[in-house]
Every structure is written in C-alpha cells, then in structure tokens.
Amino acid sequence: MSTQPSVLITGASSGIGATYADRFARRGHDLVLVARDQSRMEQLAERLRAEHGVAIDILRADLVDRTQLAQVEARLRDDSRIGILINNAGASKAGAFGDLPPDTISALVDLNVTAVARLASAAASRFVREQGGAIVNIGSVLGIAHEIGSPLYGATKAFVLMLSQTLQRELGPGGVYVQAVLPAATATEIWDRSGRNVDELPPMMSVDELVDAALVGFDRREAITLPLLPDTEQWDAYDAARKAMLVHFSGVHPAERYRKAG
Ligand SMILES: NC(=O)C1=CN([C@@H]2O[C@H](COP(=O)(O)OP(=O)(O)OC[C@H]3O[C@@H](n4cnc5c(N)ncnc54)[C@H](OP(=O)(O)O)[C@@H]3O)[C@@H](O)[C@H]2O)C=CC1
Ligand SMILES: CC(=O)[C@H](N)C(=O)O
C-alpha cells in the first residue's frame, strides 16, 4: 500500500488517461481506474502492478449513465485514500453542429460537462474538509479557440476551463490544487472515435509528451497548463486583457455605443 495519495483517473482505458495511469504508477501512487472497457483496464492494471508494485482498483463505469456516475462520485467522496482526481474522460464529434443528432449533443454534454462537474464536486467536497487534494481537469485549446475544431466540443471544453478557474478561486485558498490542462491535437483514439482519420491530419503531439508536459505543470502547481504554448506571458497578456474588461461587467446603463442617438 502506497504512502502517497491514490489517484482516480477517468478515461483510463486508453490515451491520455491510460498514460496518466502509467506515470502515476511510476511515481508509486495506487490507482483507481475508471472507464467502460473493463478488459483494457485489467490489462493496463496487470502491467502496472507488475512493473511498479502499486495497488490498482478498477471501477467500470459509463459516465453518461447517471447511476454509474453516482458510483464514481461515491468513491471519490468516501475513499479518503484518493487525493488526486484526473478528470479526463471525454469525447469529441466531427461534423457540422446542425448535423449532430440531439442524443449525440446530450451524450457529449453529459460526458464532457456534467460528469466533469459532478466528479469535481464529489472530490472537492472531501478535499475541502481535508484542506488538500488535487483536481486535474482535462480541457482543450479548443475551449479558447472557436476557430478550430467542432463547435459543441469546443464549447464543452470552454466549460472545463471556466469551471477550473472558478474552482481555483474557491478551493485554492483552502489548500485544494486545481489544474486545467489544455492539450492541442494529441495522437490518441479520440480521432477515430469521433469519425476522423488521424492519418489525414497534420502531425500532432504524442500522448507521452503531452502527459509528461502536463505533469511538469502539475508538479509546479500551475493553474493553466498549455503544453504547446512557448511563452507563458502570452497567456498572461490574454488573461490581463480579459481582467481589464471586468470593470465594465457591472453597471446601471448601457455603454454609450449602445445608446440610441438622441
Ligand atoms: N487527443 C486530443 O487531441 C485531445 C484530447 N483532449 C481531451 O483529453 C481527454 C482524453 O481523451 P483522449 O485520451 O485523447 O481520447 P481517447 O478516446 O483515447 O480516451 C477517451 C477515454 O475516455 C473514456 N470514455 C469515453 N466515453 C466514456 C464514457 N461514456 N464513460 C466513461 N469513460 C468514457 C474512454 O474509455 P472507454 O471507451 O473504455 O469508456 C477512454 O478511456 C478528453 O477529455 C479529450 O477531450 C483534449 C485536447 C486534445
Ligand atoms: C484537439 C482536441 O481537443 C480534440 N482532440 C479535437 O480536436 O477533437
């Protein structure tokens, strides 16, 4: 049994989540793996137990199913060994917004928004009492770049960024670390799963390099981690421009430019 906090990782059966599992196992953390594919998680767990001697639980759950989501929430609330949540499970969908079937829209929001929020809430409720813990929310550069990618997916990732920033303000002073990770295109199964041929796309970052970069930000307790951004001052300038508008986000009368000419 590790003396370090256990790590609960959603979307742990492949891609970024599976790579986080590898990295935290290497660091000696026990793990709780969450996804739908039991077999893939069992194979991953078997390898990591053998290589690193850590304890690994598998909690199979479809996070779009509220009953199964609630089971993962309960684990986060009740298992005091868990000190880190990697809020990673997510999906994308190619195609024009107008062509998306209603159920597809609901499923994407249920996974990328509702599940992320409810799991963060379940973890936060205990982390606040314990005055510690870490929540890593996996967003995307598409959450701040409407010029790229699919509209609905980007909107769900804008939610993840905003949720992370509001939680940083609310939970940070109480000792809870919240990190928003904003990957750009990364070589995982998300492309095939969302109906896009990765071979027809420009070269992209490997999942190993992405997660290793995200962990550099994690170890630095960085709030917003943008693995591809070379200069942190670019984000700082972006955020400063946003903050400069705050003074105009409360008032009694519309700005002059919206007042009808006399
Ligand atoms: N790859 C990229 O280019 C980028 C990815 N991201 C984000 O990274 C995160 C991980 O994606 P990535 O690793 O790339 O993609 P993958 O498709 O490789 O992994 C997605 C993971 O989520 C799990 N998952 C999917 N649907 C459900 C569900 N209904 N319930 C529970 N688990 C589910 C899958 O497991 P299973 O099928 O077994 O349930 C899988 O483990 C996502 O949030 C994605 O939006 C952000 C920016 C870029
Ligand atoms: C870059 C992403 O966030 C995502 N993989 C997508 O483009 O669908």
UniProtKB/TrEMBL annotation:
EC numbers for this chain: 1.1.1.298, 1.1.1.381
Entry keyword annotation includes Oxidoreductase: yes
Matching InterPro entries: NAD(P)-bd_dom_sf, Sc_DH/Rdtase_CS, SDR_fam
Keywords attached to this entry: Oxidoreductase
GO molecular function list: 3-hydroxypropionate dehydrogenase (NADP+) activity
Domain of life: Bacteria
Root EC class: oxidoreductase
Known role: NADP-dependent dehydrogenase with broad substrate specificity acting on 3-hydroxy acids. Catalyzes the NADP-dependent oxidation of L-allo-threonine to L-2-amino-3-keto-butyrate, which is spontaneously decarboxylated into aminoacetone. Also acts on D-threonine, L-serine, D-serine, D-3-hydroxyisobutyrate, L-3-hydroxyisobutyrate, D-glycerate and L-glycerate. Able to catalyze the reduction of the malonic semialdehyde to 3-hydroxypropionic acid.
UniProt record similarity statement: Belongs to the short-chain dehydrogenases/reductases (SDR) family.
Protein name stated in the entry: NADP-dependent 3-hydroxy acid dehydrogenase YdfG
Source organism: Dyella choica
Taxonomic lineage from the root: Bacteria, Pseudomonadati, Pseudomonadota, Gammaproteobacteria, Lysobacterales
